[in-house]
Amino acid sequence: MNIESLRTYCLSKPAVEETLPFGPDTLVFKVVGKVFLLTGLDSDPLSFNVKCDPDLAIELRERYDAVQPGYHMNKKHWNTITVDGSVSGRLLKEWIDHSYELVVDSLPAKVKAELKK
Fold first, then answer.
1. 88/108 Cα distance (integer angstroms)
2. 80: helix, coil or strand?
3. How many other β-carbons are positioned within 10 Å of the β-carbon of residue 20?
4. Domains identified in the chain and CATH numbers
5. How far apart are CA 101 and CA 105, in angstroms?
6. What's the pTM?
7. Does the keyword Transit peptide apply (predicted)?
């Protein structure tokens, strides 16, 4: 996965917008105004922060060296993923999906219903 495939994947999800609220170097993906993924445009190798269930976050950090507590984020709810080739693209997408779904699940029922149309 590279920055372009990451962008394409995130933007393929319903109601996602791409923003630069922290300046030109940090790309932020939001669903209905709520952040589900952040990445530094100058990070080499590519890394990104995703929201994660707290118990799963701990499990992933213990299992994968590429998964660390969220950099500059709430360590309980966010992981930083380094795309160093040690984790499959399928797993990376699963973690992005999980982050997106956590944010969608936190939205009001009316908004969630609109997203599923």
1. 33
2. strand
3. 11
4. 3-115 (3.90.1150.30)
5. 6
6. 0.93
7. no
